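F.,

This is the one I mentioned.
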């Protein structure tokens, strides 16, 4: 049985251990997890380690599977004093991000985000799991030449308020902002070796004005040509306006309001992201730190009283400095997807035309 901080790589079913340098990173803000590992000649059998780029692999931390994917790079090196083997790779979802989407006719009709994702990901051996309601069907989806499945799916996921990331099996997850809590968190003087918070103001604004632009550009403008909603951030003490054109095709007033509120909340949340280096890969129950999981954070020296924030990213690291987990946590509101309308549908167009006649 492997120790909790052992790393084992299975390449085409063959186990390779003895890695000196380890980094495995997972994040709720990107679809593809990745890894880098290295070993030197002081481990017996290093000369027998031959891996071909493109081979399937699994990464295990102790007994826990953390990444399933492919080897991208195999790099043997030597100097007068040592030999080194380095491997790097990414999860199976790399093909969903890298490769062009293929579908006969380049058009998908009446599918939900989940069914469309399954259709586009199936050729790459990637399954899709939805942890939340994926909403109503999308009447029509057109694929442009060269679009990747990710290019097609990302705006759909935003439309339905869903995040896209991968699981340890290398498959796609569609989820809302996580509500599951870790068994423990990060407390100064206990399990936090180092931490920092860049409190920032340069990306925050006092007023967020969202415009909606009518579809009928040559219609009578009146008061409806550009509707403005103003949302204030009370934490910004001087006048710093930010004007936005709501990313909506039907000129929806509600979407403009939501966009302004989202912009303000997201920027406030990301103005105080905490970076933590913990002394273990695991929480109090022995579970690996997991993206999209809530955890309490208490760092008095950084003027951060007890809060419960979301784990955005975690890197499992081992090297000359020991075994650590490097994490980024932010307020959960920082991860709410941007609101917008995916495309105008006939009833929206008819409404816009009728409005233009008034």
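My design for it:
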């Amino acid at each position: 049985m492997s120790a909790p901080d052992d790393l084992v790589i299975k390449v085409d079913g063959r186990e390779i251990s003895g890695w000196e340098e380890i980094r495995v990173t997972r994040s709720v803000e990107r679809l593809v997890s990745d890894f880098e590992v290295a070993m030197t000649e002081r481990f017996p059998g290093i000369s027998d380690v031959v891996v071909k780029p493109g081979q399937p692999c699994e990464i295990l931390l102790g007994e826990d599977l953390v990444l399933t994917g492919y080897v991208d790079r195999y790099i043997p090196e030597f100097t007068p004093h040592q030999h080194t083997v380095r491997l790097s790779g990414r999860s199976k979802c790399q093909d969903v991000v890298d490769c062009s989407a293929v579908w006969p006719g380049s058009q998908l009709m009446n599918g939900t985000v989940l069914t469309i994702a399954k259709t586009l990901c199936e050729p790459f051996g990637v399954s899709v799991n939805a942890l939340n309601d994926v909403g109503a069907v999308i009447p029509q989806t057109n694929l442009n030449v060269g679009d990747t499945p990710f290019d097609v799916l990302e705006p759909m996921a935003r439309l339905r308020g869903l995040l896209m990331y991968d699981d340890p099996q290398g498959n796609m997850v569609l989820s809302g902002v996580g509500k599951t809590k870790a068994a423990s968190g990060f407390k100064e003087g206990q399990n936090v070796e180092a931490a920092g918070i860049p409190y920032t103001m340069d990306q925050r604004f006092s007023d967020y004005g969202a415009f909606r632009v009518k579809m009928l550009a040559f219609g009578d403008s009146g008061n409806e040509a550009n509707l403005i909603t103003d949302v204030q951030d009370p934490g910004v003490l001087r006048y710093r306006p930010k004007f936005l054109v709501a990313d909506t095709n039907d000129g929806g007033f509600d979407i403009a309001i939501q966009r302004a509120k989202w912009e303000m909340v997201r920027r406030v949340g990301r103005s105080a992201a905490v970076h933590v280096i913990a002394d273990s890969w695991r929480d109090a129950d022995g579970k690996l730190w997991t993206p999209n999981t809530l955890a309490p954070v208490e760092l008095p020296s950084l003027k951060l009283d007890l809060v419960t924030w979301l784990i955005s990213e975690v890197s499992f690291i081992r090297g000359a400095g020991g075994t650590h987990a490097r994490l980024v946590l932010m307020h959960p509101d920082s991860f709410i997807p941007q609101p917008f309308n995916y495309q105008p549908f006939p009833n929206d167009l008819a409404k816009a035309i009728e409005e233009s006649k008034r």
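Residues 186-199+272-335 form a domain with the Phage tail proteins - horseshoe like beta roll fold fold (CATH 2.30.300.10).

Talk soon.
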